[in-house]
C-alpha cells in the first residue's frame, strides 16, 4: 500500500476546514508503533478542535480522533508485535499528535496498551475514552470500599459522555446484583 485515507483538519486565515485526504506512511509522525486503525470514537474534544478558536491544537494540520483501536502493523518496542490488538486513548492523540481518524496511526509505545481480553476493537471504541474514564472512576470507588450496600450513587454531569456511561455501568452492576 502506498497511500491511505485520513480525515485532516487544517486552519488557514482563521478558518478551520476538514477533508479526507490521501497520505503515505511518511506523512505520519515517526513513532514506535504503527497501528492499522479499525475504529475510533467521537469525543467532545474532537468537536472542539474543529472550531477556529479552540485552545487544544498547537499546530495544523491535525488528524483528530482522541482514541483508536486496531492492530499493530510494526513496532520498534518489544512490548508489541505485528498483529497484536491494541487501544490508545488520551495523551496528545488527536489534538497535537495525529489521531484515530485515519486508516493508520503512528504512536509512542507508552501511549498504546493491549486490547483487554474479552473485548473487541469495536467494543473498545463503543465505550471509547468516556467509557474508559467512567470505568476507572467506578473501579476507584470500589477499591476504596464503596459497595451497593452503601446506597445510591449520585452521578453529576450525567448528560455528558462520562456521566451517561457511568450511570449505565452503575445501573447494570449496582442495581442488578454485583457487589
Q: What's this, in brief?
A:
The protein has 179 residues and is of the alpha+beta class. The chain has helices at 44-48, 121-143, 161-175; strands at 4-12, 15-23, 33-39, 67-75, 85-89, 104-107, 112-114. It has a 5-stranded antiparallel beta sheet with strand order 6-3-4-5-7. The chain has a two-stranded antiparallel sheet with strand order 1-2.
Core attributes:
alpha+beta, 7 strands, Quinone Oxidoreductase, Chain A, domain 1
Question: Could you characterize what this model shows?
Answer:
The structure is a single chain. The protein has 3 helices and 7 strands, in the order E-E-E-H-E-E-E-E-H-H. It folds into 2 domains: 4-114, Quinone Oxidoreductase, Chain A, domain 1 (Alpha-Beta Complex), CATH 3.90.180; 121-175, no CATH class. Helix 2 crosses helix 3. It starts with a strand and ends with a helix. The protein has helices spanning 44-48, 121-143, 161-175, and strands spanning 4-12, 15-23, 33-39, 67-75, 85-89, 104-107, 112-114. A 5-stranded antiparallel beta sheet has the order 6-3-4-5-7. The chain has a two-stranded antiparallel ribbon with strand order 1-2. The protein has 179 residues and is an alpha+beta fold.
Amino acid at each position: 500500500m502506498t497511500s491511505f485515507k485520513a480525515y485532516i483538519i487544517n486552519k488557514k486565515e482563521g478558518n478551520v476546514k476538514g477533508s479526507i485526504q490521501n497520505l503515505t506512511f511518511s506523512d505520519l509522525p515517526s513513532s514506535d508503533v504503527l497501528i492499522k486503525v479499525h475504529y475510533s470514537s467521537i469525543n467532545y474534544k474532537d468537536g472542539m478542535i474543529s472550531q477556529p478558536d479552540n485552545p487544544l491544537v498547537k499546530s495544523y494540520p491535525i488528524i483528530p480522533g482522541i482514541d483508536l483501536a486496531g492492530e499493530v502493523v510494526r513496532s520498534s518496542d518489544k512490548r508489541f508485535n505485528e498483529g497484536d490488538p491494541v487501544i490508545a486513548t488520551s495523551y496528545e492523540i488527536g489534538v497535537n499528535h495525529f489521531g484515530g481518524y485515519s486508516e493508520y496511526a503512528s504512536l509512542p509505545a507508552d501511549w498504546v496498551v493491549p486490547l483487554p481480553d474479552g473485548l473487541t476493537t469495536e467494543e473498545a471504541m463503543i465505550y471509547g475514552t468516556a467509557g474508559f474514564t467512567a470505568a476507572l472512576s467506578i473501579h476507584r470507588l470500589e477499591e476504596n470500599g464503596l459497595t451497593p450496600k452503601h446506597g445510591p450513587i449520585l452521578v453529576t454531569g450525567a448528560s455528558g459522555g462520562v456521566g451517561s456511561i457511568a450511570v449505565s455501568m452503575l445501573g447494570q452492576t449496582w442495581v442488578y446484583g454485583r457487589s
